[in-house]
Amino acid sequence: MKAFNSSVGILSLLGNFISPGTPEAPQAVAVMSATTYSLPALPYAYNALEPHISAQIMELHHSKHHQTYVTNLNAAVKSQQEAIQSSDIPAQVSQSRT
């Protein structure tokens, strides 16, 4: 897997999955000129894929795993904005390596 050399690369990659502005995408809220993402509701019930995928697995995957991705994205955006606003070059560089 190719490593990204900037958090912008990661943000653009994740933007393919959770970009604001489309009906099925999470709602974005402007905060400190950054975007805050939230987990969108599924367009179907958790038990809609039974018996192939259980409702319990769907709920766990959506409400825990996907929420973690959104939470980590918001933390990365916030850290990046704070580093830019405070002109903290070492923090900007360290974030661009992840």
Automatic annotation (TrEMBL):
Name the predominant localization.
mitochondrion
**What cofactors does the UniProt entry give for this protein?**
Mn(2+)
Q: Using the record, list the residue span of the signal peptide; answer none if the entry has no such feature.
A: none
Localization recorded for this chain is: Mitochondrion matrix
What family is this protein classified in? Belongs to the iron/manganese superoxide dismutase family.
Subunit and partners? Homotetramer.
Tell me the protein's name.
Superoxide dismutase [Mn], mitochondrial
Q: Which organism is it from?
A: Mytilinidion resinicola
